Amino acid sequence: MGDDLSDWHESAELCKTWKAQGQKVVFTNGCFDLLHPGHIQYLNDAKALGDKLIIGLNADDSIARLKGSSRPINPLKDRAAMLMGLKAVDAVVAFEEDTPLNLISLLLPDVLVKGGDYAADDIVGAKEVRDAGGEVIVVPFLDGYSSSKLIERIKAS
C-alpha cells in the first residue's frame, strides 16, 4: 500500500511528463476521510475537466488541526489507497500544511478544481494557477453527502 502516495518530486515530474504529452492536468485537494458517493461524483466530474487527475491529500496532522483531534477516521495511507482505487484518480500526493498552496505552486496544474460553493477567486492557489495560464473551476457537491454528517450518524446509532 505504500506505493499509493507520490512524493512532491514524483508528482511534479508526473505533471511535467503529462503536460509534455499534451495532456491536461487537473488538481483538487481534500481530506477524503470517509469516501461516499458525493466524493465519487465530485472526482469523476473533476477528471472530466481534463486527462489526468492528481489529488492533494491532507496529511493526518493537517486534518486534526482543521477538523479536531478525533479526525481523521482513516489514516493517510488508507485514504490514499482508497483514492488510488478509483478509476478517475491518476496520482495522490500528501501535504502537511493547512492548505495546498505550496503544492499547487509546485505542480501548476492546467485546471484547479474545488467542490462546493466557493467563489473561484477565494480558492487557495487560484491566483498561481491563473498566472501560469491555467483555469479555476468550482464543481457543485452532490447534495446530502458529508463525511462529518456520516460520522455523526454512526455515533448516534
Keywords:
157 residues, alpha/beta, Rossmann fold
Number of DSSP E strands: 5
Structural class: alpha/beta
Integer count of domains:
1
* CATH fold descriptor: Rossmann fold
**Uncertain spans:** none
Q: Mind telling me the CATH superfamily name?
A: HUPs
Count of discrete alpha- or pi-helical segments spanning 4 or more residues: 7
Structure overview:
By secondary structure, this protein is α/β, with parallel strands linked by helices. It contains 7 helices and 5 strands; from the N terminus they run H-E-H-E-H-H-E-H-E-H-E-H. It has helices at residues 8-20, 37-47, 60-67, 76-84, 101-107, 126-131, 147-156, and strands spanning 25-30, 52-58, 91-95, 111-115, 135-139. The longest helix has 13 residues, at 8-20. The N and C termini lie far apart (31 Å).
Describe the structure concisely:
With 157 residues, the chain is α/β, with parallel strands linked by helices.
Chain-wise SSE layout:
Layout: H1 8-20, E1 25-30, H2 37-47, E2 52-58, H3 60-67, H4 76-84, E3 91-95, H5 101-107, E4 111-115, H6 126-131, E5 135-139, H7 147-156
Parallel strand pairs: 1-2, 1-4, 2-3, 4-5
